[in-house]
Amino acid sequence: MNYLKKSKHLWIIPAYGIFYMLAFMLMEQSNVKIHIIHSLADDRIPFCEYFIIPYVMWYFFLIGTVIYFAVLCPSKKEYYQYLGTLGVGMTLFLLISFVYPNGQHLRPDLTNAGDSVFLNVVRFLYKIDTPTNIFPSMHVFNATASCVALYQNERCRKNRIFTAAQIVLGVSIVLSTMFLKQHSVADVMTALILNILCYQLFYKIIPVRQERLSEVFTKKEILTVPNLLSAMRLVLAILFFGTFERYGIVQYRALLVVFVIAAAATDILDGRIARSFNSVSRFGRILDPVADKAMQGVMLAYLIPRYPLAELVLLLFVVKECYMTVVGWKIIMETRTTIEAQWHGKLNTVMTYVVVMILMVGPRLPYSTLNVLIGACAVCMAMSFGMYATEFREILEQQNGSYRRNMQGRLSRGN
Question: In 3D, which of 253, 286, 284, 282 has the Cα closest to residue 269?
Answer without folding.
Answer: 284
